[in-house]
Amino acid sequence: MASHRRPKQPSRTRVTVLTTAAAAAVALSANAANAAPSEKLSKDDVKAKVDKLYEQAEQATEKYNGAKEKQQKLQKEISTIQDNVARGQQELNKLRDGLGSLATAQYRSGGIDSSVQLFLSSNPDDFLDKASTLDQLSSQQVEALKKIQDKQRELAQERAEATEKLKDLASTRTELGNKKQEVQGKLAEAQKLLNTLTAKEKAALAAEQQRADRSSTERVDIGHSAPASGRAGAAFSAAQSQIGKPYVYGATGPSSFDCSGLTSWAYAQAGVSIPRTSEAQATIGTRISSVNDLQVGDLVFFYGDIHHVGLYAGNGQVLHAPHTGAVVRYEAMSDMPFQFGVRV
Length: 344
Prior knowledge:
The chain is an alpha+beta fold. 60% of the residues lie in helices and 8% in strands. Strands 1-6-2-3-4-5 form a six-stranded antiparallel sheet. The longest helix has 66 residues, at 43-108. 25% of the residues are buried.
């Protein structure tokens, strides 16, 4: 006869766990159903965020430019010092050879002085510190030893200077790499935002940029502003010849420019050498506080940290390389926070 066993009832603990899990699942389902999908940014919102990222990229670009300029300067200085050390070492070797020849001649004529023997086998600095020993040397030997000592000290100083500059160079290279990564990171972030737009929105945004570039590359009326003349006029004319060239961070022309790359290139065409970065360019020439006092060709600076520079174009306009995605063009100075101008 088959035995009929009563089915095993689940424990109270198991019932509680299952009930709780079921309740949680229901709650999650309800929340998922009621949750709004992630809000997509509008084209205008994306543009605003991208413009801000481009501004931040330009800030980092000017720091990158400064580090790059410093690196190039240090490399030249180190090369010069190393050349001086090499020439100095050759001169030192000749001085030592000369004293050695003198000692040889002295030996052949009747024996070599023990003090000279000491020099030839040890550091002359130790030898020259002993005043009593100097009395034993001929005036010719004293003069030769002093020249050697002076040359050794000079070489030691130059080698120490080269060592410090090499340390500075290593630090500058690190800074350069960091700033480059920062610029590229901002640009990549901007591109990521642009990629969230639909094809239609991208086309509309591109069309807006093209219209802005076209309308801003036409010659502006300088109005009542003083016309460009002299070297400032030549620099302004040079910059005008680059209208339509693209903005590229770190570029100094002639195929592309960043903001300070354009201004430094333009003045170089006029025979005037100015610093590479906007921050450094702001420290030269005569400062002009009022827009009304500006003349065509003056440098004009924007934003509190002076990370953007252009050339005054007259009638409240600036000729500049604005930012990534734009070209060298005219723009109303009122579009940016003007700080001051500089007459080179």
